[in-house]
Design brief:
single chain; 303 residues; mainly alpha; 14 helices; FtsW/RodA; transmembrane
Length: 303
């Protein structure tokens, strides 16, 4: 997949931005099977991360060609923003909503000269987040399980307690064997992969991963400045925001600095769909960088 996307001319996608958005939305709707208010199709199967990736590509092209001075276009973008987040919300993994929301706001700030529009998005984000947390009691309970994790010994509080014990048992290099802790980890530990690395290999390995993550993100931002095509810049910016949130959220979750929301550490966690999507993102970044000196888009030169 990486090589296939690398040799593909990404500029051919720009004129199909609305088509990609429509197909992504249709796939998101049809992949969600509702029964009693619960999805019975796992996000690994419906590829929620892939839908988020396609949304980033489509929005990058749409914002590159839209006239922000036209109020109709502003309302169109707001509608797409709400619809996209709703589709991603159906995928049962809230990290996709977080990634797309921040990427959308950053892309709007980059492409729109009117700074009041991004402020409206940010205000809507804060208001929507508060309504989401306080509308249903169980969501507030999940937040409280993070805040009072030491006093809660089941559900997500159980996971937060495991993280605390793993951090306490870890050494700078290696670990102190804690059989009780090993017995407690009897669940799918994808969400706490970084914690397991910290426990089994020590703080040195954990710090090494953090440093590599920072270098990786900084290099993406630096390479983006070398791209002459604005559409390519938009895509790399959206993908960089995606990786930034994935790394930051996953590491903070695994250090008990954030609640558990299903973020997997990129290239380390072993969930199939996020791994495939992240490799596709790297392939697309490589495709864009290999054509960094091509300024004109195929959409604008009529090809």
């Amino acid at each position: 997949m990486f090589l296939g996307i690398y040799y593909f001319d990404y500029r051919k996608l720009e004129k199909y931005s609305y088509h990609i958005y429509g197909i992504s939305t249709a796939v998101g709707l049809f992949s969600y099977i509702s029964k009693g208010g619960m999805s019975i199709v796992r996000d690994e199967i419906v590829l929620g991360s892939l839908i988020m990736f396609l949304y980033l590509i489509s929005i990058s092209g749409i914002m590159n060609n839209i006239n922000f001075k036209d109020k109709k276009n502003i309302f169109k973008l707001i509608g797409m923003f709400i619809l996209s987040n709703y589709i991603l919300f159906l995928q049962m993994n809230k990290i996709y909503v977080v990634i797309f929301t921040f990427a959308f706001i950053v892309l709007t700030i980059k492409n729109c000269k009117n700074r009041r529009i991004p402020v409206v998005y940010i205000f809507s984000l804060v208001l929507g987040g508060l309504l989401y947390c306080f509308r249903e009691p169980y969501r507030l309970a999940r937040l409280m399980s993070f805040i009072n994790s030491r006093d809660i010994h089941d559900g997500l509080g159980y996971i937060h307690n495991i993280i605390s014990k793993a951090m306490y048992s870890s050494q700078f290099i290696g670990r102190t064997l804690n059989q009780e802790l090993i017995n407690m980890i009897s669940f799918d530990a994808n969400d706490i992969t970084f914690t397991l690395i910290l426990y089994y290999f020590g703080w040195a390995a954990a710090l090494f991963i953090i440093v590599l993550s920072i270098i990786f993100i900084i290099s993406l931002f630096k390479n983006m400045k070398l791209i002459k095509n604005n559409y390519g810049k938009n895509i790399i910016l959206g993908i960089t925001i995606s990786f930034l949130i994935q790394f930051t959220t996953s590491i903070m979750m695994c250090l008990n600095l954030a609640p558990i929301i299903g973020a997997v550490l990129p290239f380390v966690g072993y969930r199939c769909a996020p791994m495939i999507t992240n490799m596709a993102m790297l392939g697309l970044i490589s495709s864009i960088y290999s054509r960094k000196n091509l300024k004109k888009s195929l959409n604008k030169i009529g090809l």
